[in-house]
Amino acid sequence: MKVLALSSSPRRDGNSRLLAQAMLDGAAGHGHETELVDLADAVTAPLRDCRTCRLADGSCSIDDGFADLLLTRVLAADALVLATPLYWYGMSGQLKIFLDRIFCYAKADYPGHADVKRGVMHKRLAVALTAEETYPGATLGVNAHVQELARYLRHELVGIVRGVANSRGEVARDPADPLRQARELGARLFDQPVTDYRMDTARGGVVWPADLGVTRTG
Question: Which residue among 86, 105, 180, 196 is buried most deeply as judged by most CB within 10 Å?
């Protein structure tokens, strides 16, 4: 499987990026193909008014690396890892701009919109999130945004790993060991059961089948 991590921190050695790389390491250890992209390298401008700036052939007129990232990497990925620091109690602007720009390619004016819609949906999704605050409510806005994004795109949200850190690299000193959590989530990226029940959902009374292959000691 192909796993693509999108790092939205402006710092190349930022804490959320370290968590994303740990997830990729866990996935690679289970034989999956992995890649990490720094969004600042590919996305240099926000979404504009597509009705006025779209080119005559329907393509986007913003000349940066977004089209290549979306059409050749994101659509081909089986799983996405979104990595962001907490900025003003939300995701980073760089990640939000990336998400906003998908609109231009999913809109009917774009010639390949049907392929984009199919390719951007039905993926496994994980999130690497870092914040300076330990307050549980600090990251609720990002959690809710990602949950609704996953619902809208019919992604399976496998998990969110949160690290508490600010200075470069100090996520490694977080006593909760989020780097280990990230590696473990990456290893389970395609095996972790994802459930979202409704009243009429057909289900048994067992969450973890005995034959799941999980061995616990101690």
Answer: 105
Joined together, the tokens standing for residue 176 give 């909760």
CA dihedral of residues 98, 99, 100, 102 (deg, nearest 10): 90
State pTM to two decimals. 0.91
End-to-end Cα spacing for the chain = 33
CB 171 within 8 A of CB 18: yes
Region of 6 (left: φ > 0; alpha: ψ -120 to 50; beta: rest) is beta
pLDDT at 206 over 90: no
- CA dist 83 and 115 (Å) reads 25
The predicted structure's pLDDT at residue 215:
45
DSSP classification of residue 73: I
Q: Nearest 5°: CA angle at 62, between 87 and 10?
A: 25
Provide the token pair at 34: 């992995």
